[in-house]
Amino acid sequence: MRxxxxxxxxxxxxxxxxxxxxxxxxxxxxxxxxFGGSLLMREQVSTMKGYWYDKxxxxxxxxxxxxxxxxxxxxxxxxxxxxxxxxxxxxxxxKIVESxxxxxxxxxxxxxKEQFGDSPLASSLTPDQMQESYRVKxxxxxxxxVISSAFAARPxxxxxxxxxxxxxxxxxxxxxxxxxxxxxxxxxLVVALMLIVNTVRVSAFSRRRETGIMxxxxxxxxYIQMPxxxxxxxxxxxxxxxxxxxLVSGQKFLVEGWLAERIDVINFIGWDAVLAKLPLVLAIGLxxxxxxxxxxxxxxLKV
Length: 303
Known about the structure:
Layout: H1 3-16, H2 18-53, E1 58-62, H3 81-93, E2 97-103, H4 105-116, E3 133-138, H5 144-151, E4 157-162, H6 165-206, H7 208-216, H8 221-262, H9 271-300
Antiparallel strand pairs: 1-3, 1-4, 2-3
Helix pairs in contact: 1-8, 2-6, 2-8, 2-9, 6-8, 6-9, 8-9
């Protein structure tokens, strides 16, 4: 195979179908940028879950004298010292528990004032209206139900809550955005594949005279198909390159230049995660159009 001839044919094909080639590059770039962004978003959600779930606690709220009429679990009044000791002793025996911290009503009142001091309700509350609680840190936050089933119906316990519930809506939103990005990526990928197939077939039709001569002189199918496959691969690689530029720009200007400065409570993924995805994006951008062109030409240019 003469490399010079193949390269000249690739150049001719790209020039003849410049508009469709540009469309292929743009569609591949957008679809692979969405693909890489979806992978990064999934990794970001996993990082956020690991970071926040490690910090949240399970709270076992104890009955106080004011809960007798408002909570069915506190019909017998406030939790006794014996009930508190029993709960603490059982928590200390559980292997899934990492640490236990007791919060008094005065401490709960102080924390409430710090967080909701501007609320009109804060001025009407007194420390004796706040509930005492055990703040339980688990070795595995996913084992919350073990604590809930063991203590929810226990005498002296008003309620067992998991602070993870306050984060679920955020994570569900991020996962929904990720699935939406994957859906758009799949649509763009289908469009890119259709454009690649049509571009290759149009290019093959415009050069049917040359390919006919090559058949007559005994050229193999692979030799005839190679310029068309390389055209698609080059266009796909250029699209993948633009997708990498979009991903790097997103990390530089969107994440580091804007989000990280305004949202300091989120531990954003770093450059190592972004750079790890670039070879995969380039590989897909190179192989996907080449394989699409190969299968599209199997019958069209069959010798």
